[in-house]
Amino acid sequence: MEQKLISISVDGKKIEVDPGMNLIDACALAGASVPSLCFMKDISANASCGVCVVEVEGAKALVRSCVQKPVEGMKIRTAGPRVMSARRTAVELLLANHPTDCLSCIRSGTCELRVLAETLGVRASRYPKLKKFPPPDTSTEGLVRDDSKCILCGRCVAACAETQSVHAIAFAGRGARTRVTSFMDKGLANSPCIQCGQCSVVCPTAAITEKDQSSEVMAALADPRLTMIIQTAPAIRASLGEALGMPPGSLVTGKMVAALRRLGFAKIFDTQFSADLTIMEEGTEFIQRVQTGGTLPMITSCSPGWINFIETFYPELLSHLSSCKSPQQMFGAVAKTFYAQKTGIDPASLRVVSIMPCTAKKGEAGRPEMDSAYRWWREKAEKDGTKMSREHYRDVDWAITTRELARMIRQSAIDMASLPEENFDSSLGESTGAATIFGNTGGVMEAALRTVYEILEGKALPQTDFLPVRGLQGIKTAEVPVAGMKVKVAVAHGLKNARVLLDDIAAGKSDYHFIEVMACPGGCIGGGGQPVLPDIGKKLARNRSLYMEDLRLPERKSHQNAEVSALYKEFLGQPAGHLSHELLHTKYKARIV
Amino acid sequence: MPTTLSSQSSPGIEAIIQKHKGTSGALLKVLENVQEEDPKHYLSESSMRSISSLMGLPLSQVYSMATFYSFFNLKPQGRHSIVVCRGTACHTRGSLALLNEALSRMGIKEFKEEEENSATSLDGFASIRTVACFGQCALAPVVMIDGVVKSRMTIGKLVSLLEKMKKGGVE
Q1: Which end of chain A has fewer CB atoms within 10 angstroms, the N or the C?
Q2: Which part of chain B is CATH 3.40.30.10?
Q3: Which of B4, B61, B68 sits opposite A592 (nearest CB)?
Q4: Which amino acids does the record list as binding [2Fe-2S] cluster (chain B) (predicted)?
Q5: Domains in chain A, ordered, with CATH?
Q6: Tens of pLDDT, residues A409-467
Q7: Residue A493's beta-bridge partner residues?
Q8: How far apart are CA A476 and CA A493, in angstroms?
Q9: What is the mean pLDDT of chain A?
Q10: Inter-chain contact A592–B3, Cβ cutoff 8 Å?
Q11: Distance in angstroms (rounded) separating the CA atoms of residues A198 and A308
C-alpha cells in the first residue's frame, strides 16, 4: 500500500515526506543533519540522550526528532539558540559523570560524544559528578565493558536484542542507578553473550570495545626468539583502508600486505588460503552427507559468533553444523604443522597472528580444543621416540580485529596510501576469488556451490556467479541444479534471521540441504571487529569491494588453488581424510549459561 | 532460550505463571506473586531463572524489571519489615532520626541511603527500607511496621513498637 506523502517545512525548506518516518530522517532529507547520540538508523531510537531536539512551531516544548513522526504542515527549526542550548545541556549532563581521559581513550578518534561536545562548544560540565561505577567487565576474551563510559543510549541493548536476538544485556536499575548489564550483574562471560561485538560497533563511546591486544602483538614482534607470521581474513582488505581514513570500500589488499611487512611480520599469509581449504573440506563433507544420508541441512561453521549462538540457544541442532573448523583455525593448524615442518621452524617459537573482522575470533582462538598442532607434534614425538618441549601452544596465538591492526599501523606512522602493492608470501598465501567472498553474506555458500558443482558434474560451471545468494536481504534462498539433484540452499546473516531457519529445522519443516549462517549483519564485512559506526552505505561499499576482488583474482574456484592442492599432495592426503579430520575438523558442545 | 543452569523445579512458580498467562504485564504480576510466596520475601536468582525459562523471556529482561521497581527485593528479607518514609514532609519532621534509631535498634551498621534502599539485620529478624513517599504527608512522619502505616511517629513510639516486635508481640 502506498503511503500518502505529507508536506512539512524544515528550516524554511518545504519537503514532502512519508508520515511514517522519524522526524530526524525527514530533516536529513531536507539537508539538515540533526545530531544524536542514542538514535542510530536501523538500530535504535530511544529518545534517551535528548540531543536530537528540534523546535516545532506551535509546540510548547522542544521535540525529540528521533521518535516524533511528521504531521501535515509541521514547521521545524533544527538550529537556533533554544535548540543549541538544550543540546548543550544534554551533553553537559552526560559529561557530568563521564571520565575525562579522552587523550588516552581507545575510542578517542571515533567517539561521538567527544565530537559532539566539541561541536557544540561544551568546554566543561556545570554538573557535579555523582555516580560511582564498578570496574570494567573483562570477563570475556573478546569484549570489555566499561560502565563509566556508558551514556545509557541503549544502542548496544538494541543491537543485542533486535539484530541478534541474544538479549545478553539489558538496562537494569532505575534513575541514577540505571546501568546496562547482564543477568545478576555477573558479567558477559556468565551471560548468553556470543561475543559477536555488534554492541561494540554501535557504541558511541568506549563503553563496549574489543579487548585490545595490539600492544601484546607489538611486543611479540620485538622478540627476536619468535617467528611471527600473520594471516588476514577476506573482509579486512575491504575495511582496513576505511579504518585508516580512506573512503569506505577501499580495496587495499596489496597495501595491507606491504604494511604488515613493514610492521615486521616474517611472512604475510592469507586466511583466504585456508578459506579455499575450508571449501575443499566443507564441500566434500556436504557431498558425503548427501550421498550417505547424513544430517541435513548442513550448516556452515566459519562464524564463531554463530557457533557460540547455536551452542547456547539451539544445542539440539549441533549435528547440523559442519564439523569444519573456521578458516582462521584451519590456518593455525596447518601453519604449525605442515609449514613448520617444511621450513624447519620450531612450532613452539612460531606465533600465528590473525587479523579478523571479528571480536568472537579471540574466543575461538582460545578454545581449549584448538590446539591440534600441539597434539599432532606430541603424537609424532611419542611415535618417533623423540623429546618435545613441554610448553603448550595453541594453533592461533592472537586474533586481532581490523580496528587493532589500524591502530598498530597508525602507531608505526605507516602511510598506507603511499605504500606499494605487495604480494602474499607462499606457501600459505595463494587464494581464489571464492575465498575472498567469504567475507560477504552468501559468500561461503557461493564458494561452496562453485566447487561442489564442478566436483559432482565433472565439468566447468556455465556461470561462476550465484546472484540469488548475494545482497543484504536478511534471508536469501536458491535452488541450484547439481548432478540431477535440486540443491536447496538458504543464507542468513544477523542471528535474528538465523533463528527463523533454525526454528524451521527444529520443527522438522526445513527442506534445505545447505544453510550458511553468519552472525553479523552483512557477514564479516559488517563484523564486530570492523570500523565502528557503520551504516548501510558503508556496508554496501565493503560488500561490492569483495566482489570486485573476486573478479580481480586469476582463479575464482577453491579447487583451483594450487597451494591448497600442493598441501593435500604433500601433507594432508585427501579432503576429509584422516589427517584432515585430526587437524581441520572439530566438535561442538552445548553451552550452559 | 539459552540452555540455563538447572533451576530448582518449582511447582509454585509454575502455578503462578499459569495464573497470569496471556494477561498484559504478566511478568510484573508473576514477579510480585513469586516474591509474596517466597518465605524470605525476595526474588532469588533461581526463581528468576525459573521464571525466565518457564515464560520464555530472556534472563536479562526479567532482571531488568526486577531491578527497576524498588518493591522487588533481590536479597532475602527479614521476618519483620520496617519502612521509613524519607519524603520531604517526613524528612522535615525528623524521619532521619527515626531511620537511624531503627537501624541501631536492629544492629544494622552499614546502610548508605544514597546507594541502597534496604538492609536486613544479620539475624534475619527485620529488614529496614526507605521509601520516597507514602502519600500520608499530613500525618508525617510515617513508618510502616509489618504492613501497617503508623502516623505521627516519634522516637518514643517507635522504640516501644520495636520492643513489642522483639518480644513477639507483633509476630
Answers
A1: N
A2: 80-166
A3: B4
A4: 85, 90, 133, 137
A5: 1-128 (3.10.20.740), 215-584 (3.40.50.1780)
A6: 999 999 999 999 999 999 999 999 999 999 999 999 999 999 999 999 999 999 999 99
A7: A518
A8: 9
A9: 96
A10: yes
A11: 14
Question: In chain B, count of helices (H) and strands (E)?
Answer: 7, 5
Upstream peptide bond of A326 is cis (omega within 30 degrees of 0): no
Choices 3.40.30.10, 3.20.20.150, 3.40.50.1220, 3.40.50.12500: CATH for B80-166: 3.40.30.10
| Amino acid sitting at position B132 | A
Residue the block writes with cell 548468553: A192
CA distance A298 to chain B (A): 22
Contacts of A314 in chain B (CB under 8 A): none
Q: Is pLDDT at A215 greater than 80 in this prediction?
A: yes
Amino acid letter, residue B72: F
Size of interface A-B (CB pairs under 8 A): 57
Q: What is the DSSP string of A251-288?
A: --HHHHHHHHHHHT-SEEEEHHHHHHHHHHHHHHHHHH
- Asked if pLDDT for residue A172 goes beyond 60, the answer is yes
Residue A362's identity, in one-letter code, is K
The C-alpha cell at A583 is: 587437524
Q: Give pLDDT, residue B171.
A: 44
Q: Which amino acid appears at position A387 of this protein? A: K
Cβ–Cβ contact B5 with A under 8 A: yes
pLDDT digits (tens, 9 = 90+) for A177-214: 999 999 999 999 999 999 999 999 999 999 999 999 99
Average pLDDT value for residue range B67-72: 90
C-alpha cell recorded at residue A74: 509541521
Per the listing, cell 608505526 goes with: A412
Complex-level ipTM: 0.92
How far is the C-alpha of A445 from the C-alpha of A393, rounded, in Å? 32
- All residues at 6 or more sequence positions from A389 whose CB lies less than 8 Å from its CB, including other chains: A346, A348
* B116 close to A (CB below 8 A): no
Residue A41's alpha-carbon distances to A36, A202, A249, A536, in angstroms, are: 11, 10, 20, 9
Residue among A356, A348, A363 at smallest CA distance from A331: A356
In 3D, which of A400, A65, A22, A48 has the Cα closest to residue A204?
A: A48
Q: What band does B169 get if pLDDT is binned at 50, 70 and 90?
A: low
> Which runs of consecutive H residues, i.e. helices, occur in B21-154?
26-37, 45-55, 59-68, 88-92, 95-105
d(CA A170, CA A180): 5
Whether residue B58 has pLDDT greater than 70? yes
CB within 8 Å: B3 and A591: yes
Q: What is the dihedral of CA A283, A526, A361, B58, to 10 degrees?
A: -100
All residues of chain A having their beta carbon less than 8 Å from the beta carbon of residue B59 are 167, 183, 191-192
CA dist A187 and A563 (Å) reads 44
Distances (CA, A) of A11 to A37, A60, A62, A365, B8: 22, 18, 15, 53, 61
Q: In sequence order, what DSSP letters do the residues of A349-413 get, joined into one string? A: GEEEEEEES-SHHHHHHH-TT--HHHHHHHHHHHHHT---------S-SEEEEHHHHHHHHHHTT
Residue A1 has pLDDT above 60, yes or no: no
Q: Which residue has the cell 519524603?
A: B87
The catalytic residue positions of A are: 282, 285, 302, 322, 361, 364, 369, 524
Residue B35 in 3-state DSSP? helix
In contact, A32 and A21? CB cutoff 8 Å: no
